[in-house]
């Protein structure tokens, strides 16, 4: 009996230690509903409709800016009213008013009638079935069911998307009329927009690199209306382009950026607004046959700040997802399904 009690105590202690070792759920985004009362070229101040509080949001964080009814892109300057819903954080300064980086700004929110605005969520985990997907958001406090026949649209493109395109890390806008009073809460989406996917942080230096098969392809691109061909590789179903090719293409546009290598710190430095200096080999199309891509362990920074771009090395060149790079450097990337072209718009 004494031996059984000892074993039981050891098991209890082991379970307790394992339980306390679990990672806490991710912090959900904060939100504010109210009126834009002040605007500069790089920030907006939103005053809450519920109280006198306000928050200053940094537009340089390049948030998704969408129409409340359609969920589609809307230029902030093109909004019809100053009434918005903004999701931001979770990091907030202690200043008055506090400052934070917005994730989504929902504009032109109807204030009359029974309009139910969309809710933002980043998928933390999901469960799939043939005819639905259940996504967990808001730090595990809400599970939303998205059925296969639910209207789903993408952000910025005209691609056809389905629940199969939703994955862990996806940023979603979801319209649902109510949430069941349970824990976690339960809701069913009536409409969904897939905004994009959260950047995956770079693999730390010293971590074991990940290998993946890379299939060569040539992408037809229209850069500010001009046709070009860009070499690319398909890795895990996504197109990755050579970082220096994009820098070369954007030279002479409104969104140039320089690329430099810091071997001592194993880091790639991008500098916006600076001309790119070619090193040779830019715009060369990949040869036939699949390659092995190895995840880049180098840190990538933009204007001195580290950014979470997923990158792969193929033949000593770094390849990144074009849309992720566009978000970081503030140039437009879209897909023209009719012409089967990638559209890059830098504003000339």
How many structural domains does the protein architecture include? 3
In terms of structural class, how would the helical and strand content be classed?
A: mainly beta
Largest sheet, strands/sense/barrel: 6 strands, antiparallel, barrel
Q: Which descriptor suits the 3D outline? A: globular
Strand order of the largest sheet: 15-16-17-24-23-20
Radius of gyration (Å): 23 Å
Helical fraction:
10-25%
Distance, first to last CA: 81 Å
Total beta strand runs = 26
Beta content comes to 35-45%
Q: What's the pLDDT, averaged over the residues?
A: 83
Sequence stretches where pLDDT stays below 50 over 5 or more residues: 4-25, 199-207
Order of helices and strands: HEEEEEEEEEEEEEEEEEHEEEEEEEHEE
Compute the number of helices.
3
Overview of this protein structure:
- This protein is mainly beta and 348 residues long.
- It folds into 3 domains: 30-112, Beta Barrel (OB fold (Dihydrolipoamide Acetyltransferase, E2P)); 120-197, Nucleic acid-binding proteins (OB fold (Dihydrolipoamide Acetyltransferase, E2P), Beta Barrel), CATH 2.40.50; 211-345, no CATH class.
- Helices cover 10% and strands 44% of the residues.
- It has 3 helices and 26 strands.
- It has helices at residues 2-21, 243-250, 322-329; strands spanning 30-39, 43-48, 54-58, 64-67, 83-92, 99-107, 119-122, 125-128, 132-137, 142-147, 152-154, 170-175, 185-188, 191-197, 211-223, 226-235, 238-242, 257-262, 267-272, 291-295, 299-302, 305-306, 311-314, 317-321, 332-336, 341-345.
- It has a 6-stranded antiparallel β-barrel with strand order 15-16-17-24-23-20. It has a 5-stranded mixed barrel with strand order 1-2-3-6-5. A 4-stranded mixed beta sheet has the order 7-12-14-11, with no helix packed on it.
- Strand 5 (83-92) and strand 6 form a beta hairpin.
- The longest helix is centred in the N-terminal third of the chain and has 20 residues, at 2-21.
- It is globular, with a radius of gyration of 23 Å.
- The termini are far apart.
- The model is unreliable at 4-25 and 199-207 (pLDDT under 50).
């Amino acid at each position: 009996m004494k031996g059984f009690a000892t074993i039981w105590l050891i098991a209890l202690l082991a379970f307790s230690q394992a339980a306390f070792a679990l990672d806490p759920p991710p912090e959900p985004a904060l939100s504010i509903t109210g009126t834009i009362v002040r605007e500069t070229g790089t920030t907006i101040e939103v005053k809450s409709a519920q109280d006198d509080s306000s928050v200053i949001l940094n537009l340089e964080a390049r948030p998704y800016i969408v129409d409340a009814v359609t969920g589609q892109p809307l230029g902030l300057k093109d909004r019809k009213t100053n009434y918005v819903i903004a999701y931001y954080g979770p990091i907030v300064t202690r200043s008055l008013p506090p400052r934070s980086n917005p994730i989504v700004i929902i504009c032109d929110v109807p204030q009359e009638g029974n309009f139910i605005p969309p809710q933002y969520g980043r998928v933390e985990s999901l469960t799939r079935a043939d005819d639905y997907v259940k996504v967990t958001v808001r730090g595990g406090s809400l599970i939303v069911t998205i059925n296969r026949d639910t209207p789903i649209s993408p952000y910025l493109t005209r691609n056809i998307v389905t629940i199969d395109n939703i994955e862990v890390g996806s940023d979603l806008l979801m319209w649902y009329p109510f949430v069941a009073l349970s824990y976690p809460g339960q809701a069913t989406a009536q409409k969904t927009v897939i905004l994009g996917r959260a950047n995956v942080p770079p693999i730390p230096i010293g971590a074991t690199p990940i290998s993946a098969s890379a299939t060569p392809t040539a992408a037809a691109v229209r850069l500010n209306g001009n046709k070009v061909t860009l070499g690319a590789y398909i890795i895990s179903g996504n197109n990755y382009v050579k970082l220096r090719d994009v820098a070369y293409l954007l030279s002479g546009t409104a969104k140039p950026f320089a690329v430099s290598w810091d071997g001592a710190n194993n880091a790639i430095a991008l500098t916006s607004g600076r001309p790119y200096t070619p090193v040779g080999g830019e715009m060369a199309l990949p040869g036939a046959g699949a390659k092995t891509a190895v995840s880049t362990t180098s840190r990538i920074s933009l204007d001195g700040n580290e950014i979470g771009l997923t990158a792969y090395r193929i033949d000593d060149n770094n390849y990144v997802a074009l849309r992720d790079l566009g978000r970081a450097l503030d140039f437009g990337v879209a897909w023209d399904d009719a012409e089967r072209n990638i559209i890059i718009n830098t504003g000339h």
